[in-house]
Amino acid sequence: MTATKGLEGIVAATSSISSIVDGVLTYRGYDIDDLAANACFEEVAYLLWFGKLPNKAELDQLNKSFSEYAPIPDELIAQIKLYPRDLNTMAALRSAVSALGLYDAQAEDDSQEANENKAVKLQAQLPTIVAAISRIREGKEPIAPKQGVSIAENFLYMLTGEEPSETAVKALDQALVLHADHELNASTFAARVTVATLSDIYSGVTSAIGALKGPLHGGANEAVMKMLNEIGSKENLEAYIQQKLDNREKIMGFGHRVYKNGDPRAKHLQKMSRELGEQNENTELYEMSVRIEELITGQKGLRPNVDFYSASVYTQLGIQRDLFTPIFAISRVSGWTAHILEQLADNRIIRPRAEYTGPTTQKYISIENR
Ligand code: ACO
C-alpha cells in the first residue's frame, strides 16, 4: 500500500454532476462558458440537483420555494447575536448552518424527497444567514429577505437594505453560476465523506463549509484581496511580488490541482473585474491584478484560478473582504447538496486506507519506567 500525497490523480468517485476534461468545465454536460453567458444561478442550481435545465413552470416553482424558505428561524438570529463581534465569518457560517439543522423538523428524515427539499432550503437560507452575520457583527439588525427576487439581488439587498444596481445583481449572479460546482473539490469531497456514513445533510454541508474556509481552497479569494490591500498601489507591486517569489511564498489565487493551463472560470471574472472598473471609472484594482498575473505567469508559469479575479470583482461591488468566502459558500451549497443527493442515491461508506509510517514492534512500558 502506497499513499498518494493529497490524493493527486486518484479517482475517488463517479459523478454525473460536473466534469473537467482537458481544461473544460461542464455542469451536467453544459460548458461553463455557455452557462456563464446565458443561465441565471437559480437555473444552474436546478440543473445541478435534477440533471436538466428547468422549464418555465419548474423555475417559477423553484423560485417560489426559495422565497418561501429564505427567512431563517428567530432562534438562529438570537444565537448569531450572541457570537463575538470580531468573528471569523466562515466560522460563524459553519456554526450557524450546524445550528440551522436543529430547527428543521425534516433534519433527520432521510427520504430522497426530504433531502431534495432540504437542499432547496439550505440554498435559500445560506444567503440570509451570511447577510445576518454581516449585519449583526456591525451592531445592526438583520434585514428580512424579499419575496420574488433572485438570490443575487436578495443577498445584496439584505446586506445593506438598499436596492442593488442591475449591474451589481448581474455580476453577482454570474459569479454564483461560476462557483456553483467543481467536481470533487475538497469541500465537496468532505460533504460526500460525511453523508456517506448516513449522517444528515446539515452535517454534510457543515463539513463542507469547514473545508471551504481554508486559504488553499475557498479562503484564497480573501487572501488575494489581503495581498492587493497590502500592495496598495501599482508602484509597490513589482517589489512586493518579487519578494514573495524570492521567499518562495505562495501567491494566493494562482495554481490549481487539476487545471495546469488555466482555470476556465477565471477569464469571466477577469472580464467582470475590468467592466466594473470601467463603470466605476477606476480600473486600478483591475490593472494591478493583471500585472500580478503577468508576473506570476511569466516567472512561475502559474495561471489565475477562480479566486484571483473574484477578489477585485467583489471589492468593486462594495462587498467587504471577509464576506468573499461566505459568498463562495452561498453558491457552492448548490453543488454540495447535488453531490450529497448523488452520494446517497448509491451510497457506500467512504473509508480509504493509510500507509503506515510509524514505529513497529513497540512494547508497553509502565509509566514509572518511561
Ligand atoms: N504560488 C506559488 N507557487 C505555487 C502556487 C502559488 N499559488 N501554487 C503552486 N505553486 C508551486 C508549488 O510550490 C509547487 O512547487 P514545487 O514543486 O517547487 O514545490 C508547485 O507549484 C506545484 O504545486 P502544488 O502545491 O503541489 O499544487 P497542489 O496541487 O498541491 O495545490 C493549490 C494546488 C492548493 C491550489 C496550490 O496551487 C495553491 O496553494 N494555490 C494558492 C491557493 C489558492 O489559490 N487556492 C485556491 C484554489 S481554487 C479553489 O479551491 C477554489
Automatic annotation (TrEMBL):
GO terms for molecular function: citrate synthase activity. It catalyses: oxaloacetate + acetyl-CoA + H2O = citrate + CoA + H(+). Coiled coil: none annotated. Keywords: Acyltransferase, Transferase, Tricarboxylic acid cycle. PROSITE patterns: CITRATE_SYNTHASE (PS00480). Gene3D superfamilies: Citrate Synthase, domain 1, Cytochrome P450-Terp, domain 2. Pathway: Carbohydrate metabolism; tricarboxylic acid cycle. Belongs to the citrate synthase family. This is Citrate synthase. It comes from Paenibacillus shunpengii. The gene is citZ.
